[in-house]
Specification:
Helix content is about 40%, strand content about 20%. It starts with a strand and ends with a helix. It is an alpha+beta fold and about 80 residues long. Strands 2-1-3-4 form a 4-stranded mixed beta sheet, sandwiched between helices. Strand 3 and strand 4 form a beta hairpin.
């Protein structure tokens, strides 16, 4: 899978990104992260920070955080 989304269950910002990916027919895999901020080592490893959502587009070499920026990327680059 070339698109991965690091997300937290019941996170409204993560849900916004999920919706954008679904609406634009983008295939992706969700990597569910731990609720406890200090346990999000995998997110820190890929993005340099522990906040979610984080989108990784392996094919394009893009890693980004912040739901608004991710939705814009989905709409302009993945749709």
């Amino acid at each position: 899978m070339t698109i991965e989304l690091y997300a937290l269950d019941a996170c409204p910002f993560c849900e916004t990104v999920h919706d954008a990916l679904e609406d634009h027919g983008v295939e992706y895999e969700t990597q569910w992260v731990e609720p406890l901020h200090s346990d999000r080592d995998e997110v820190k490893r890929v993005s340099g920070q522990r906040d979610v959502p984080v989108l990784v587009d392996h094919e394009a070499g893009v890693t980004m955080a912040e739901s608004e920026k991710i939705v814009e990327y989905v709409e302009t680059s993945l749709a």
